[in-house]
Amino acid sequence: VAIKLVRRGMDSQEILRRFRRERQVLASLDHPNIALLIDGGSTPEGLPYLVMEYVEGTPIDQYCDEHKSTISERLHLFRSVCSAVQYAHRNLVVHRDIKAGNILVTADGVPKLLDFGIAKLLPGPDSDVEPHTRADMRPMTLDYASPEQILGEPVNTATDVYSLGALLFKLLTGRMPFEADGSRAALEHCICEGEPPRPSAVALATGGGSVP
User: What's the pLDDT at 15?
Assistant: First the structure.
């Protein structure tokens, strides 16, 4: 198993809140392409911990490159990831941090979606969760972040769909849809205002990209 816990000194109220939210999210999910929550509790000092399925694998982009995966093989893995995300959405969970590093592929070729640490629970008919992310809290991985995440607007399932699109672009071309030299602000502007190139055009310009 893999044990995840909050380190002493890092136990701010916000981090503890996120950790407990992650435990709540994972307890509701049971899918072959999502790392399974096995147990959870608190240490004698009162710090929460999670006991997770241990996934021994390689980030999905590295896996595809190391195995020289064809387009069809990459799409097969990607469809499994989409199945996991769709399942999460049906259970009113938005992951909010879908990226290659959070998807490990096992030696058997099974992708596993990890790290629901900044996931958001959507309000349901019997739910009392908050409907929006706080304006001052914008957790994200910029390369895969959607425009609404960057702008601090409310997120929903479309946020994950955007990140899936960015992931697919990387799997097919070997690069991200938006790349900006210089500041973080320049990349944010490209994501919010720019139009990504067609993956086929990128692959052609780079002599086929990373895809055989």
Answer: 79
